[in-house]
Amino acid sequence: MTGAGGMLGRDTLGALAAVPGTEVTGLTRAELDITDPGAVRCAVAAHQVVVNCAAWTDVDGAETDEASATAVNGTGVRHLAQACAASGAVLLHVSTDYVLPGDGRRPYAEDAPTGPLNAYGRGKLLGERAVAELLPHTGYTVRTAWLYGAHGHNFVATMLDLARGRTSVDVVADQYGQPTWSVALARQLALLGRAALARRAPAGLYHGTATGHTTWYGLAREVYRLSGLDPERLRPVGSAAFPRPAVRPAYGVLGHGRWARAGIRRQPDWRVQLAAALRTPGFAEPAAAARAAAPALVTG
């Protein structure tokens, strides 16, 4: 597995290790640079399944250095697909809703037309196309979105941190998506890998996000409510309040129709996932610290 040191990578290592009889090799970015084709070939050799969690995840940074972002998210994925094609390994590649245009009004199906709005999305789309082109029968691309977990920077952790020092927090309320716990996605990837090896899962695109949807503001309110913090500290604002170098999709809600063909359940609702995540030490401890340090809310 690539990207083993990241948020999703660490949880995926745990999910794979929990599968009886599975031997797992986890390589961090320092141990495997997927932009190096020779190193990739050596790493892939003798493995049955490769899970690619390596990625350039700095969405705004990709706007100023698209070449470097694409080298990882596009060309690096092609190197992995080529190595898997040569060795006969199955490839599970993690992608993003940012390959879509974000102007929908209903959940995007797996075969919906793509149309990325930013450099990050363009690079990720190149990676998707490499998997489809080189591994038509053994390549699996799993798109995810709004990912949070205990092992990396993410929105949920940021909201808990902000609660410690602010009486009010502005949160974007006009972008819609599916908050997804990295543990839930990791478990789904482990199931997909087993199904792929058993030839029970059709190759191609899958959408690995929670069911249901909300806004960033809706997510923040649920984080605060479940953590014993006052949701009234949060104020809804438009995207224009936080200008960013990279355009964000207004609507990134994904459909999950293909999982049934693989015999795998869709992920639980985002609220169910969030409640479970907030009970784990990685979030429960920051929530307790936020409650202890939260300033008093002064009302009129």
UniProtKB/TrEMBL annotation:
Pfam families linked: RmlD_sub_bind
Key words of the record: NADP, Oxidoreductase
Gene Ontology BP annotations: dTDP-rhamnose biosynthetic process
GO molecular function: dTDP-4-dehydrorhamnose reductase activity
EC number: 1.1.1.133
InterPro entries (alphabetical): dTDP_dehydrorham_reduct, NAD(P)-bd_dom_sf, RmlD-like-bd
Keyword NADP annotated: yes
GO CC term, one of those recorded: cytosol
Pathway: Carbohydrate biosynthesis; dTDP-L-rhamnose biosynthesis
Domain RmlD-like substrate binding: 1-279
Lineage: superkingdom: Bacteria
Listed PANTHER family: DTDP-4-DEHYDRORHAMNOSE REDUCTASE, METHIONINE ADENOSYLTRANSFERASE 2 SUBUNIT BETA
Family affiliation: Belongs to the dTDP-4-dehydrorhamnose reductase family.
NCBIfam families: rmlD (TIGR01214)
Biological role: Catalyzes the reduction of dTDP-6-deoxy-L-lyxo-4-hexulose to yield dTDP-L-rhamnose.
Name the UniProt record assigns to this protein: dTDP-4-dehydrorhamnose reductase
